[in-house]
Amino acid sequence: MRFDDVDFRAECSSVSRRGECVNINRNKWDAQTYDEVSRLVQYRWGQQVLEWRKWDGNERVMDAGCGSGLLTELLAQKVPRGRVYAVDGDSNMIKQTRRNLKDLANVELVQSDITNVKLPIDLDVIFSNAALHWVHDHAQVFQHFWNMLNCDGDMRGQLLIQCGGYGNLRRVDALIRRVMKLNEFNIYFTKMNRPWYFAKPNDTTRLLNEIGYIGTNVSLHNDCVSLANRKIYARFVKTVIMKPFLERLPDDKTRNRFLELFLHEVEKRSNNSMGPQSTWSLDYVRLNIIADKP
Ligand SMILES: C[S@@+](CC[C@H](N)C(=O)[O-])C[C@H]1O[C@@H](n2cnc3c(N)ncnc32)[C@H](O)[C@@H]1O
């Protein structure tokens, strides 16, 4: 495959040959591509999470890490007499959400870090899909969510959250790390911490109970996703999973080569006898979190 069609429009920062981070805060999501590729995966997950609750229709809700707003739109439909605060730290995602949701009167967009966002009202529900594994300090974020939830209304405050959980993308991560260790790339990753935190259910349950949440229901499930072919897989992986790795590389040529070598690893280690869909798979594990504030 040629990578002429792989587009690195996002403002990429890089890591210098001495291993220093350069403009690391300028890394933004390619929100337009995310909006397309997430319909295959994250959108489906989020739709399931929305069905966990019997909605009254007047809840005040935060979509924490709303991305391009596809699920925010469904949330807004669940609460026609309520309000949705769509919060994301990434300005490209907020712009894309604005484009997607321009006709919705009960949605407000907020560009902020979800770990310390301030909203004008208390919330009945905090919904979050495929975002919380980007936050390393879960004690802090669950305490902040507790502070944001309603405690004196008729409705109990509730968390409805799904994110990557323990064991998520183990196979894919191992293959990325093989490529990172190659001589031509390792210099760029010397000071890189793990980009994600994939929590164990017991740790999350303990954390939530210590804060004071009740009715906690935390579980893991496997959700291996198979994509149709190499091209679709490359586009998805480049935009979603590889983002924190590719943004450390200095230019498109290096990023394309990194991606190409990763895809080569995927092909080399797959069980071809099961067809292309098994080759182009992602070993996702989801952490499901429901908890109430009494
Ligand atoms: C994989 S996307 C998921 C987007 C959307 N919830 C969905 O399911 O399609 C993760 C999103 O979380 C956002 N995010 C991650 N950490 C964040 C933080 N600490 N504060 C605000 N947004 C954050 C990212 O900017 C990104 O838009």
Could you describe the 3D structure shown?
It is a single chain. The chain has 294 residues and is an alpha/beta fold. It has one domain: Rossmann fold (3-Layer(aba) Sandwich), CATH 3.40.50.150. The chain contains twelve helices and nine strands. It has helices at 31-37, 42-50, 70-78, 91-100, 138-148, 170-180, 183-186, 201-211, 230-239, 243-246, 252-268, 276-279, and strands at 14-15, 21-22, 60-64, 83-88, 107-111, 125-129, 157-164, 214-226, 281-293. α6 crosses α11 (252-268). The chain is globular. The termini are far apart. Bound molecules: S-adenosylmethionine. S-adenosylmethionine (SAM) binds at residues 29, 38, 42, 46, 65-67, 70-71, 88-90, 93, 113-115, 129-131, 134-135, 240.
